[in-house]
Amino acid sequence: VVQPLETKDGQYFGRPIYFDNKLTFLLADFTANKIQIFQYQYKNNQLSTLAEISLSEIIDCYNLLLHASPLMLTRQGADHLFQIIWPEKVEFQIGDTESFCCRADTKLYFTAWYEDPHYREELIIREYATGNILEKMPGSLLELPDGQKWRLY
């Protein structure tokens, strides 16, 4: 059992991800009013802080998630605002049923579901900096552990 950090009252750990051969995780510390992103190198038991962000910079912590390739912290709230909070700041509105999947270079991949009247999914590719829609196509995206991305339809 490995425990790189001990939890304290008023803290919340986000879902960890594996990136760059390290375990990467976020910690929302409501007592200290900050979010921290850590990487843990299990080979030498070393913990490093990648980022520290004031909670005042974030609308709320709903759907605050780390994503890899590249490593980034995102937020997608009930207000349909998608935000990249770290390492750069980007924000734009998305559809009611859109969910962020991943980034590849300057493209952001989202999936959306519809019931009109039959259930279907759509893959939406947006421009990184603006959120403008570049392409829509039927299906969804599946990311495999080795980084391959498959379109399913």
Protein described:
The chain has 153 residues and is mainly beta. The chain has no helices and 15 strands. The chain has strands spanning 11-13, 17-19, 22-29, 34-41, 46-54, 64-67, 72-76, 81-86, 90-93, 98-104, 107-115, 119-127, 133-138, 140-143, 149-152. A hairpin with a 4-residue loop joins strand 4 (34-41) and strand 5.
The gross shape turns out to be: globular
Which oligomeric form is depicted?
single chain
Tell me about the biggest sheet?
Answer: 5 strands, antiparallel
SS field, number of helical segments: 0
Gist?
The protein is mainly β and 153 residues long.
Entry keywords:
mainly beta, 153 residues, 0% helix, 15 strands
What secondary-structure arrangement, pairings included, does this model have?
Elements: E1 11-13, E2 17-19, E3 22-29, E4 34-41, E5 46-54, E6 64-67, E7 72-76, E8 81-86, E9 90-93, E10 98-104, E11 107-115, E12 119-127, E13 133-138, E14 140-143, E15 149-152
Antiparallel strand pairs: 1-3, 2-3, 3-4, 4-5, 6-7, 7-8, 8-9, 10-11, 11-12, 12-13, 14-15
